[in-house]
Amino acid sequence: xxxxxxxxxxxxxxxxxxxxxxxxxxxxxxxxxxxxxxxxxxxxxxxxxxxxxxxxxxxxxxxxxxxxxxxxxxxxxxxxxxxxxxxxxxxxxxxxxxxxxxxxxxxxxxxxxxxxxxxxxxxxxxxxxxxxxxxxxxxxxxxxxxxxxxxxxxxxxxxxxxxxxxxxxxxxxxxxxxxxxxxxxxxxxxxxxxxxxxxxxxxxxxxxxxxxxxxxxxxxxxxxxxxxxxxxxxxxxxxxxxxxxxxxxxxxxxxxxxxxxxxxxxxxxxxxxxxxxxxxxxxxxxxxxxxxxxxxxxxxxxxxxxxxxxxxxxxxxxxxxxxxxxxxxxxxxxxxxxxxxxxxxxxxxxxxxxxxxxxxxxxxxxxxxxxxxxxxxxxxxxxxxxxxxxxxxxxxxxxxxxxxxxxxxxxxxxxxxxxxxxxxxxxxxxxxxxxxxxxxxxxxxxxxxxxxxxxxxxxxxxxxxxxxxxxxxxxxxxxxxxxxxxxxxxxxxxxxxxxxxxxxxxxxxxxxxxxxxxxxxxxxxxxxxx
Amino acid sequence: xxxxxxxxxxxxxxxxxxxxxxxxxxxxxxxxxxxxxxxxxxxxxxxxxxxxxxxxxxxxxxxxxxxxxxxxxxxxxxxxxxxxxxxxxxxxxxxxxxxxxxxxxxxxxxxxxxxxxxxxxxxxxxxxxxxxxxxxxxxxxxxxxxxxxxxxxxxxxxxxxxxxxxxxxxxxxx
Lengths: 530, 174
What we know:
CATH class of the largest domain in chain B: Mainly Beta
CATH class of the largest domain in chain A: Alpha Beta
Radius of gyration of chain A: 23 Å
Number of domains of chain A: 2
Strand content of chain B: 35-45%
Order of helices and strands of chain B: HEEHEEEEEEE
Oligomer: heterodimer
């Protein structure tokens, strides 16, 4: 039996939450939390694998908003301040919990963790995550790929030019940042409909990922099921998510992260302790939020107040056990599937939001590390990537996958429902306006060109799928609506200035400083509506 | 919070759009300009009795092989811009939406018509399997036709698409 390829695909993305206009902005914390809970622990994990010569690869997609924030001087400085604040908080906790046999060791656990993180980020990485990602790609540990632009629902965009702009913006900035062209791309929310592959192929993209039903409902029945890619009409390889494997990790009720020994996400000292004490470590206005210090384990289906203290050693071992179980289950699965694959190896695609590992599931990076170790001991499975598979297996079925997304019901239900449907009118009108401007002012230069480029940036930022997602889930709705309003208002103002030949340079400069993503954006992409 | 109307980027055109949500539902939203409405009303002899209406249609092939447009749903439009969810009637045919005036004589005067869409498919198509040789290059995939056939010419039995073993470890509950 041919060795099965297990592709772990981590999709790293956050909306662009850079706010230079405020010294402390609540939503910027999303970036800081993900940095010290997910991205840095993942990089530490990869280095440990290298040091121990453990074989295997994984695929990591990083969205343009995220790697732009990782590469941003202001956010780097602020993240350092954030880490320092965590260290001060952990030291304060050691004082506060003196004499407490249960919580004092946990305070020490966090102090050591934060100090180690700071040393890793500053001393080992030189505050440069981008170079480390580039190095890990060059070394072959990860297949680093990009994601569509600002994470839009690509099928919901109104124009070919708009779709082209989103894909090209990401591919170009990825190349400018990492020094090579991405071979693959992550479709935001795995949202695909036939015809979208043309825009990927134009940028030299070879592969992407879709939900399992996109493969199963393709134009032609997939003879290898969901365990080999399909080549679409425009020559892009589509790998289908294996829902069985995914559910083992994703599912809050059945998946590993719900194990009672793992750390409880929803109980944090930012909410537990007296306001006077915690105030220096939360929003200056006294708005409570997570600090990252969580002292309890999931325990079971009990109220937050009844959660039991966390035991990091027990949780660590549990993550290791779960990793072994996952790999053994994949090997058994591959054995069953092999009878139907004939001459070719099984390819199992397991994509996850990277923020699951470390942020939502604190022990997730340990679990991932365990996968590599266990797979190294199991001859039936190899930790692989789509690139490896496409290089080994060179004949594939050609047929285009069906319309689908990941998430609820595997269609657009999350991003298009009663709560958020209203946004698409404005998005599409703004997009049509941008295509008109790009066409009307195709020879623009100087200030006019700057205004057109900024209009494009504002549009891209407005189109992020994060905003309808937030509106649907009801978490920080006011912020999502404010972002949509702000970007569309900026587009209207810029369009008026461009068409009125009365461009306000100070206004442009202010927007360029704030919404500074895609510095070399090719705004003429919107004019190409072929 | 501003209302959606406060956000509108004026398109200055009559338009209607249909977005698929799932195999059963689509979202239709429209915008009728005052000029577009006035123009339609001018074409009606008794405009005071005409009603602004949205309708969804589908195109089918009849027994004689002719394409026929059938109405799926119609509803009165209270505002010149708004939106609502509608049902798809069939996943394999084109659907589109129109907004216009329905006259007292039941004649529909179209003001705007959407691009056609089809519902997301829930079963695979009937195309015969076709294979290509694939080469991964710096500029993307390069493919070439091949006479490769699946050795058994078959498909995955549905029951084999899923792993039959247990999916998770028992939880600790102590």
